[in-house]
Q: What sequence folds into this?
């Protein structure tokens, strides 16, 4: 990856941290403005029956909710705290991604503002579901990928594999990220990295983390595929 001129990290964090804090404030002001969303009731029911998978989703968000319930209870603020934090972290990652791509402080601020005001992100980060975590995992994976492409150390690729693995345990749409990454490596000059251990380590780690859910699917007759067909 060509060497890019980056804003110093301390300066680069100012705008993203500010917008992330504003994101938290917006959700805090509205966190109890309406009652439980129907999906939240479904997630709460699932959290009482922990397993390595469910008909319509992998186990990560359900297991996290069970932990939240054990520690904080099931009040609206407790239920919606992690989606808001996840959304704030995503905004911070947006700023870091812009920095990795060579954007200055204005570009970072503009990108973070757009992420803050995106209606779909305002919505999904305001109630509990796997989708708030999904955008976080995609954003973190994108940042780690940029770091790995710029500095081909095994640690960056291993971290990417961990994030993709947990991302898959949260929502299988992360497969699209992995597929896009594979195609991108093949059809661009980055194909030289295929001969390096990094991408293979990332794939192996992600598969290892996702394996328990695949075993659950196999043991139960692949219910998610049947759910999708119907």
A:
């Amino acid at each position: 990856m060509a060497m890019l001129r980056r804003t110093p990290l301390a300066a680069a964090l100012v705008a993203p941290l500010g917008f992330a804090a504003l994101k938290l404030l917006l959700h805090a002001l509205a966190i109890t403005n309406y009652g439980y969303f129907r999906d939240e009731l479904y997630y709460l029911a699932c959290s009482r029956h922990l397993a390595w998978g469910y008909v319509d989703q992998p186990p990560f968000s359900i297991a996290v909710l069970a932990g939240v319930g054990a520690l904080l209870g099931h009040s609206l603020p407790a239920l919606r705290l992690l989606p808001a934090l996840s959304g704030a972290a995503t905004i911070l990652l947006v700023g870091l991604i812009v920095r990795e791509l060579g954007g200055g402080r204005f570009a970072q601020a503009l990108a973070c503002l757009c992420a803050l005001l995106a209606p779909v992100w305002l919505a999904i980060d305001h109630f509990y579901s796997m989708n708030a975590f999904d955008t976080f995992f995609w954003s973190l994976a994108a940042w780690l990928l940029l770091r790995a492409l710029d500095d081909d150390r095994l640690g960056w690729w291993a971290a990417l594999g961990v994030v993709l693995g947990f991302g898959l345990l949260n929502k299988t749409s992360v497969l699209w990220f992995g597929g896009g990454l594979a195609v991108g490596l093949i059809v661009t000059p980055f194909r030289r990295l295929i001969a390096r251990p990094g991408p293979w380590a990332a794939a192996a780690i992600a598969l290892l983390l996702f394996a328990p859910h695949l075993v659950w699917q196999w043991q139960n007759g692949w219910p998610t595929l049947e759910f999708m067909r119907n």
